[in-house]
């Protein structure tokens, strides 16, 4: 029977606490009461710095979905403190999510709070820097989650299939990979929006030029991700499907606000092209995942499912390149 891990319990609890604090600050930033820590709401600041790719206000309601999904993820992690299997409590036997995941999460949420204050003070360059790091830590969260499933996926598939799908599932609400995927994608888009503001208002680039740069970067990122997820890291990120819906949501908000059929601008036409591309790539992605799920199931023929979590962990330490 595995022993309890006080350090792991501490980082899980700390992860929940910093998230709760962040939710309080986000609520305060949303109202912008002058009696509170923020002098203006996030929406009011956004209205001051209008760009050609700033989406409609309703688009930002996705934050409600993101925070609900992340809350559900944390509830799942908290339940692992109480749930047991034959080897011990689920939070440490097996320790699917490494300490790096929790450290990245805590840094991410602290930066989330920091960005709210920078945005309130209209410190756009500093805010952009923080957003870049937020997006990067989100990528780290996905990496650590995928690494954990790479190590223990076959064991979960054999002994705890529900947990396997709660961590990476297609449809489950309380799961990790796709929730982080939504958060990572939206913060990437937010970074591009902030970058556009810096180019336009700080660097003096024209509205059209600033929008073109950011839309071009988004195009490169979307195409690059499609290649990576389908042909480079396919076995690790197979069931992450939330990237394109988030991109589509952001682009729809942009089209709704800026596209004029009678007099379309270059930025709005570029946005429509990106929207069509994102939808097409999403359909292609779903079809590829369905086909591979049936024809090339993960963990088929794997021998790690017969090992205990402790044996898998020991092998992983001896050989970090251990294949499932």
Automatic annotation (TrEMBL):
Q: Does the keyword Transmembrane helix apply?
A: yes
Return the InterPro entries for the record.
TspO/MBR-related_sf (IPR038330)
Swiss-Prot/TrEMBL keywords: Membrane, Transmembrane, Transmembrane helix
| Annotated Gene3D superfamilies | TspO/MBR protein
On the tree of life, the source organism's domain of life is Eukaryota
Bilayer-crossing residues are 7-29, 58-78, 99-118, 124-144, 209-227, 239-256, 268-291
Q: Which protein are we looking at?
A: Uncharacterized protein
């Amino acid at each position: 029977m595995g022993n309890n891990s006080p350090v792991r319990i501490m980082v899980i609890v700390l992860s929940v606490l910093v998230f709760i604090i962040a939710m309080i600050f986000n609520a305060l930033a949303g109202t912008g009461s002058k009696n509170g820590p923020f002098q203006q709401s996030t929406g009011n600041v956004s209205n001051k710095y209008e760009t050609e790719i700033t989406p409609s206000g309703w688009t930002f309601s996705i934050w409600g979905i993101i925070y609900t999904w992340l809350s559900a993820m944390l509830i799942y992690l908290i339940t692992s403190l109480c749930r047991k299997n034959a080897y011990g409590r689920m939070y440490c036997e097996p320790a699917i999510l490494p300490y790096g995941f929790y450290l990245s999460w805590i840094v991410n949420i602290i930066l989330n709070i920091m960005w709210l204050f920078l945005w309130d003070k209209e410190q756009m360059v500093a805010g952009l820097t923080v957003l870049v790091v937020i997006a990067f830590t989100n990528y780290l969260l996905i990496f650590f989650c995928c690494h954990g499933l790479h190590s223990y996926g076959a064991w979960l598939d054999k002994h705890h299939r529900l947990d396997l799908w709660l961590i990476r599932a297609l449809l489950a609400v309380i799961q990790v990979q796709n929730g982080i995927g939504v958060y990572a994608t939206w913060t990437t888009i937010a970074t591009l929006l902030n970058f556009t503001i810096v180019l336009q208002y700080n660097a003096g680039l024209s509205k059209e030029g600033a929008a073109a740069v950011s839309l071009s970067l988004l195009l490169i990122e979307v195409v690059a991700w499609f290649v990576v997820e389908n042909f480079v890291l396919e076995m690790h990120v197979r069931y992450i499907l939330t990237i394109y819906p988030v991109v589509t949501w952001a682009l729809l908000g942009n089209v709704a606000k800026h596209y004029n059929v009678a007099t379309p601008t270059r930025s709005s036409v570029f946005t429509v092209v990106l929207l069509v591309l994102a939808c097409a790539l999403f359909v292609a992605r779903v079809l590829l995942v369905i086909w591979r799920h049936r024809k090339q199931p993960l963990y088929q023929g794997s021998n790690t499912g017969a090992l205990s979590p402790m044996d898998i962990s020991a092998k992983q330490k001896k050989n970090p390149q251990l294949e499932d």
